[in-house]
From TrEMBL:
InterPro entries: DUF1272. This is DUF1272 domain-containing protein. It holds the Pfam family DUF1272.
Length: 79
């Protein structure tokens, strides 16, 4: 199950569980669309993979399977 991390690893902007701006790679590294497009060139700085929009978990299921509250911020080149 996806952790639905609450922030961008690059700029630390908030990415709520229902955010259409969240992007993830195959390892669930989480970044905002702006950083993916304008800072990272569409490639994950952790694994080199590409990004996809993060799925939005239905609100009713967030009660049973809440999003992660753990913020992850990396020291990536270009961030």
């Amino acid at each position: 199950m996806l952790a639905l991390r609450p922030n961008c690893e690059c700029c630390d902007s908030d990415l709520p569980a229902d955010s259409a701006e969240a992007r993830i790679c195959t390892f669930e590294c989480t970044f905002c669309a702006d950083c993916v497009d304008n800072r990272l060139g569409g490639a994950c700085p952790n694994c080199g993979g590409n990004f996809s929009p993060r799925p939005i978990r239905p609100a009713a299921l967030l009660l049973k399977y809440p999003a992660s509250a753990e913020r992850v911020v990396g020291k990536h080149a270009g961030c």
